[in-house]
Amino acid sequence: MPGPAGSRLLPMQFVALSLAWGSSFLFMKIGLAGLLPLQVATARMRLGALALTVVVLVLRVRLPRSVRQWGHISVVSLFLCVLQFTLFAWAGQHINSGLLSIYNVTTPLMTLLVTLAALRAERPHRAQLAGLALGLIGVLIVLAPWQLLGTTDTGGLGAQLACLVATGSYGVAFVYLRRFVSPLGLPATSVATVQVGIGAAILLVTVPIIDDHPVMLTPGIVASMIVLGVFGTGVAYIWNTNIVAGWGATVASSVTYLTPVIGVALGAVILDETVTWHQPLGAVLVVAGIVISRKQPRPTGTGVATADPTPH
Q1: Which of 119, 158, 264, 312 is buried most deeply by CB count within 10 Å?
Q2: Nearest CA to 189 among 238, 140, 227, 152?
Q3: Model pTM score
Q4: Which residues of 49-75 are buried (b: 16+ CB within 10 A; e: fewer)?
Q5: C-alpha–C-alpha distance, residues 150 and 78, integer Å
Q6: Residue 271 to residues 29, 67, 274, 289: CA-CA distances in angstroms?
């Protein structure tokens, strides 16, 4: 858990994390110009693992030693790294980077859904149900099902659904991380290094079997993979683990509030992407649903709001 000094750094880490992950969709899209989706996911994981290994060696951070600890972190790695990196990269072949970042904002809603499903004792209150309903409407507006009428092109729809599965895996990872990994009291750098390292190992084994096509590298692609790997995948996971331990899974997942703003802006300026009217409107409704769902009910007769149910 972060100490007093570490707690004071959490706001800065939160901002840095939003910038790193908000720009990751741009760098992912650039990488897809010469790499296939699984190759993009593998490149960012390998570079992230390398960066974290350097940090561990320089700071002499002790890695987890027990099989139980490695097992829990492996579960987080599968859902937080392998699945979502691969799914977002695949989706990036069919939709623009700004839309990828907009779908990423559904992560807090997915986290809430996983929390309600995993913790059956916690009955959803009216604000949560209202927020989920509003968020679902926002997702449908972004999906724009009316655009599918009269067309047989389902590539864009499949890519958007893949994004939702990816954010669902985020939700599983955030809740699992908070419930099973944070209580272990391991240093954030240690958790992040093992998490990204395991994910890199899984993908390294998978790529030769599934996706062994030759790569086409340019200076721009190489630079984008380095930034995406070192910062968006390596250092960012140290910040993420610190935030989950210090502020809880729900607050940590809310970093995605800022990522669509950053992602859409970068896509428009650098890649000349266009954003249709319904995409930002849907994103606003999703964020509004998240805000509503996090309002706590007042206990009967007290007039005092309840505390955040997330353990700290």
Answers
A1: 264
A2: 238
A3: 0.82
A4: bbbbeebbeeeebebbeeeebeebbeb
A5: 38
A6: 9, 45, 9, 30
